Amino acid sequence: MARKQERSLLTEVELEFMTVVWDIGGGTVRDILAELNKAQTRAYTSVATVLKIMEQKGFLASERHDRSLVYRPAVPKEEYQRTTLKDLSSKLFDGAPAALVARLVDDEEVTDDMLESMRALLNERLGDNGR
Q1: 13, 50 in Cβ contact below 8 A?
Q2: Where are the transmembrane segments (predicted)?
Q3: What pLDDT tens digit does each residue of the chain (131 aa) get?
Q4: How many CB atoms are located within 10 Å of the residue 74 CB?
Q5: Spatial distance between the Cα atoms of 11 and 61, rounded to a whole number of angstroms
Q6: Strands 68-73 and 60-65
Q7: What are the distances in angstroms from CA 81 to CA 34, 43, 44?
Q8: β-bridge mates for residue 61, sequence order
Q9: 28 phi and psi, to 5 degrees?
Q10: How far apart are CA 103 and CA 118, in angstroms?
Q11: Residue 22: CB partners within 8 Å, gap ≥ 6?
């Protein structure tokens, strides 16, 4: 029986796979392979191995349908985003979310429209809809 590993953060490749699983809601190795191959050709066995590792880490769950395993997200995308941002804030910004936001706002690639969207989100969260 495979042992369940402690859930950590996804590697770059795992995140690419997980994004596909989140987007399609789950599927067989062939389903996931077909989506991944739209961007880059991968081998069936490589995809199957990565999916099994992700299941062991607790990011995916599987159940057998006929002769195939069907993989589904075990972690919702929003939960993973939250965990990843907390980790990033903790490790890179000394646990200060304001420092993370300040760095984001200082980024020259962030447009005025994006800043306005951020302001609207902050105002909504703070209850300052009219200000």
Answers
A1: yes
A2: none
A3: 455 555 689 999 999 999 999 999 999 999 999 999 999 999 999 999 999 999 999 999 999 999 999 999 999 999 999 999 988 889 898 888 888 888 888 888 889 899 899 899 989 999 875 55
A4: 16
A5: 18
A6: antiparallel
A7: 25, 28, 28
A8: 72
A9: -75, 170
A10: 13
A11: 73, 77
Query: Of the candidates 110, 36, 113, which has an alpha carbon nearest to the alpha carbon of residue 102?
Result: 110
pTM over 0.85: no
Whose tokens are 């990033």? That residue is 88
Determine the residue type at 79: E
What are the tokens at 98?
């304001």
Dihedral-angle region of residue 22 (phi above 0 means left; psi in -120 to 50 means alpha; beta otherwise): alpha
- Looking up tokens 């599927």 gives 27
How many whole angstroms separate alpha carbon 123 and alpha carbon 68?
Answer: 48
3-state secondary structure the chain: CCCCCCCCCCCHHHHHHHHHHHHHCCECHHHHHHHHCCCCCCCHHHHHHHHHHHHHCCCEEEEEECCEEEEEECCCHHHHHHHHHHHHHHHHCCCCHHHHHHHHHHCCCCCHHHHHHHHHHHHHHHCCCCC
